[in-house]
Amino acid sequence: MEGWQDDWSKALETVANEFEQFFQNVGREISEFTDNLIEFSEEIADEMEQAIIPKLDQIDYQMTEWLDPLLQAILGVEATIDRAVEPVTHTVEPWLNQHPVCIGCRHYHGQMYSGNLLICAMHPYGVDEGAETCSDKELVSWSFPSANQHDSFDQN
Q1: What is the DSSP letter of 122?
Q2: pLDDT digits (tens, 9 = 90+) for 94-148
Q3: 117 - beta bridge partners?
Q4: Rounded distance, CA 107 to CA 126, Å?
């Protein structure tokens, strides 16, 4: 009876060795296939890069050639508009030595129009020279909404 157990043990050992050899061969072939696939993918990527990048560079160059004059024109027009409206939009803050009475007045305008400074509607050229007060002066008041006012806005 012991003979069949030895035969059975040898048969199982042979099957196990053949399975081991099979899986080693499969693993080796999968590894080779993966290496070949990676190499093939790298070659394809290199070929695509060599074919596409010059075209993209050419498109970039052409777009720059087309858009650069347009951008320069836009910037030139913007600069021209800025220079043209500067006399209209130029604001002068009241200085202590020029219009000291106007400092802090809510009516102060201080913009240049065609080279002429408009101080305010009540006194276009400012108060009389040497005057220390202005009967029309109203101080700028900065107030922040109180908590109650803020809540009333949220409810609307």
Answers
A1: S
A2: 555 577 788 788 888 878 777 788 888 888 888 887 788 888 888 877 655 555 5
A3: 112
A4: 11
CA quadruple 81, 85, 87, 93: dihedral, nearest 10 = -110
pLDDT at 154: 46
CA–CA gap between residue 156 and residue 153 (Å, rounded):
6
Residues 6+ apart with CB under 8 A from 94: 100, 102, 103, 105, 108, 110, 119
More confident residue, 112 or 58: 58
- Nearest CA among 83, 94, 85 for reference residue 118: 94
What do you get for the CA distance between the two ends of the chain, in Å? 100
Q: Which two tokens stand for residue 115?
A: 């080279």
Query: Among 89, 126, 130, 87, which residue's Cα sits nearest to residue 107?
Result: 126
3-state secondary structure of 109: coil
